[in-house]
Amino acid sequence: MIPNLYPADELALIRAHKKRLEDRENEIKRGYLTGQLNPVGYEATVEVKVALHRVLLKDRLPNSIKDDPQYWEDREVRSVVLRKIGRRGVTTIPHGARANPM
Fold first, then answer.
1. Tens-digit pLDDT profile for residues 23-35
2. Cα–Cα distance, 11 to 18 (Å, whole number)
3. How far apart are the first and last CA of the chain?
């Protein structure tokens, strides 16, 4: 927890940091997948593994199956969505909410 920071702002900072780390990870992985990087380090080694798995090509199914409701179900997916607010975070706190409840 970062002191004196709203949890929503802290979450935004964490996600931005995570994005930078994921971008760097992807850049490094590309280097290994193309054989451009040495796989041996001081504390770790990298091995590129290849695995085969079966994939259902849903777009090739006949419409009679794709349109049949017995093959479908509705699932609820919950997620936390961040939205940028005005310049310098000028906004009001929702009624009943505390500024920094943590």
1. 999 999 999 999 9
2. 10
3. 9
Retrieve residue 69's tokens: 């409701």
Provide the token pair at 70: 């017995």
Q: Which two tokens stand for residue 30?
A: 């590309």
Q: Is 18 helix (H, G, I), strand (E, B) or coil?
A: helix
pTM value surpassing 0.90: no
Instruction: List the beta bridge partners of residue 74.
Output: none
Q: How far is it, in rounded angstroms, from Cα 53 to Cα 11?
A: 35
- Residue by residue, DSSP assigns 32-92 as HHTT-S-SB-SS-B------------GGGS-HHHHT-GGG--------------SGGG--P
